[in-house]
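Appendix B: complex inputs.
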Amino acid sequence: MDAAQRLADEVGLENLTLTALAEDLGVRQPSLYKHIDSLDHLHRSLAVRAKTELASVLATAAAGRAGPDAVRELAAAYREWGLAHPGRYAVTVRAPDPGDAQDVAASAAVVAVVTRVLESLGIVREDAVHATRALRSSLHGFMALETAGGFGLPEDVGESFRRMVDIVVAGLTTGLRAGHPR
Amino acid sequence: MDAAQRLADEVGLENLTLTALAEDLGVRQPSLYKHIDSLDHLHRSLAVRAKTELASVLATAAAGRAGPDAVRELAAAYREWGLAHPGRYAVTVRAPDPGDAQDVAASAAVVAVVTRVLESLGIVREDAVHATRALRSSLHGFMALETAGGFGLPEDVGESFRRMVDIVVAGLTTGLRAGHPR
DNA sequence: AGGCGTGGCTATTGACTATAGCCTAAAGCT
DNA sequence: AGCTTTAGGCTATAGTCAATAGCCACGCCT
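Resulting structure:
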């Protein structure tokens, strides 16, 4: 698992092949099946680890903060971690199989951190679900486009990220004061 | 190309194999190489088509509208088109090879529509670049998570999308009035 | 009639996932 | 001490894909 994680970060999740992993471990490719059921199962295991790690990173970043400040710290930690560990990050996006309790729990842990932070913005109940989706979408979309090389223009990408987070924070707090505009 | 597009929408871009496409066309797999250079080249061609189509869909949706209303219409059209044509949508995200003029132009066309709409919100110059990135990130992130099955909770996903767009619109206009919070 | 381009085809290679079935060495039992 | 089980390797092999090489037939244009 450790080797798989490292390899995924190095070569990208899509290039994490069992052949490459076996070679990395100095072992023949079929031997890996003594440890995993399938490539998909490997991805799932990596996902559980990565989601757990991400939840902890986010929780640490937001610890002791509240409101807009907490959101900004969380967002910054999210992007930093994702850029530092592209393989791990890619696998966190995988939705869990609803029957897989461990994976579901790991996914929920990430969502829980975000929800807690939004709570500190005063967003609760079913508003929190929608707000969490909005924030997650923005963060993930940015990462997806950034790592896909989607931001061609010379403007600073970090600056864009900070501004996006500010926009979302402003929108979330405005929405609270004004009700939900339609 | 037509068949490839249709197949991609039906089975998903990742399952658009040359073998399947050849079968669909009633032809042997190597014969396809008389028409395309590689699978990657096929993706690139599909991308140019899809980006062009998306730009036109977005332009139509936003035509005759301005301000927040235009953004909402554009966003709704984006999601609708993406959900209706998942294969086409997926290929839209591919960043163009900088040396591929056609692909670069098609990508720019999409960005141009978004930029025009943001202009009608009063966002211009280098602010527009950051705002475009923010809006695109949100829209794409939402679609990516939605199509990956990432929204497990029962809350209405369409409602989440509308709220996210409202949040971003509110954030963009607030940011204008208040300067850029940091 | 000759020449050529278009668009098929078979055969084959090489990367990859996955399965079947064999072997060995250490662990644990009696 | 001797037997058995199990963990973890291995080879061989099948099946799916993309991709290349090289062949052939048809139609068109001179």
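Chain A touches chain B through 47 residues (CB under 8 Å).
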